[in-house]
Amino acid sequence: MTATHEEATPLSRTEEVTAAGCPVVDFDFTQPRPATEYFTVLDEMREKSPIAWNTFGGGFWMLNRNALVQEAFQNPQLFSSSATVPTIPEPDYHFIPTMENPPNHRLYRSVLNPQFSPKVVAGLEPSIRRDCVELIESLMDKGSVDLVTDFAMVFPTKVFLQIVELPTEDTDKFVAWVEDAFAGLGNPEGVELLQRAFAEIRAYFTALLAELGANPRDDFFGRLATSNIGDRPITDEEFLNMSLVLILAGLDTVKSQLGYAFYHLATHDDDRQRIIDDPSIAPAAVEELLRAFAIVMDGRRVEEDMDFHGCPMKKGDMVMLTLAAASRDTLEFEHAEKVDFDREAVTHFSFGSGPHRCLGSHLARLELTVALQEWHKRIPHYRLDPSVGPDEIVESGPQLGLSKLPLVWDTASVVR
Ligand code: HEM
Asked: What's the CATH fold of domain 13-413?
């Protein structure tokens, strides 16, 4: 008798996950959807599947509940930052400090933190307000704008260049680089644009580094170029890398968050009226808008095989920390999906949590607050451009943001 020996075919990750009883989803975050729809889709997913295996983009886990996301943020030894884009488990780049892990990560943060402390940022308020007012005044007689391109991208870029004392004439250049870089992050067709943008940013900062070598300066990049990482001087490579990360992390994020804030206010007259009537509620409004529209689809890499709340995670698996779902978790917040400026103790993950919590959160909060206050003081009554269909205002990941936000207003209603 001949024994037939059939090799058992190894189970695919999806089959293993299904066998363990964990939910499987097919969630493509790159497809354009009407404004704010991703948040609703993720709300539904969170309620059905606190953890899910997503088959999209090579496969990765999604942690959708607030407590699970917090657990991952607090355990960098299990959920490392060696890769932070859920669809890119083996990146051919290494961003600093984003992809550093403890204990080295702290060395980089201790160089950057003092430059973005609450005290330093508070001291910047007059110049941030001045930039903001100047930009709004240049737009208010137009009666219509694409808020995303005409305001939300330009304002944080100008502010950033002022803070770091680079020429504000370079604003358009930086705006274009950031647009191109993010176009390529979620979409393979944009990779060429991304690579070109990275190369041009690098060339810009290489020239700056040479200039700082010849004429040392006591400004942001001058101090960065002469800083120490632990007990040794920063290398040129680290300087260039960190400069690129600051540009990528600090500009597009504020743009996207402004887009959602103004979309909400253009479509919710009561909330807009509250800011017009009482600009001092702007910080609370900003906090709630950050919570309701958390834009970053953060990622971590699993560092060892483990059972995580009943799901079989393997070393090398990628995990999405679904900040949008976690910040609207019905287990944490009452009427979590609603924007409520009176909400108390708003704790959210829009800026992440744990060691990598956003370096620029104080600056971002101030920029958003100033933008809401100064805009509504001058252009209180605006609405979505009725000639643009609601389905034309779309969003997509991996960093959620509106493609455009056409607003119109009666120029007679402008306040001078
Ligand atoms: C509303 C606007 C912003 C949002 C929503 C945002 C969000 C985030 C999030 C979620 C993280 C954590 C990433 C992770 O854990 O992997 C992060 C990190 C970071 N952010 Fe922001 N950010 C904003 C504005 C800014 C600004 C204005 C700057 C400018 C300095 C900045 C610089 C950074 C840097 C350098 C990191 C990396 C920190 C680290 O890895 O230690 N961000 N941000």
From this structure: Cytochrome p450 (1.10.630)
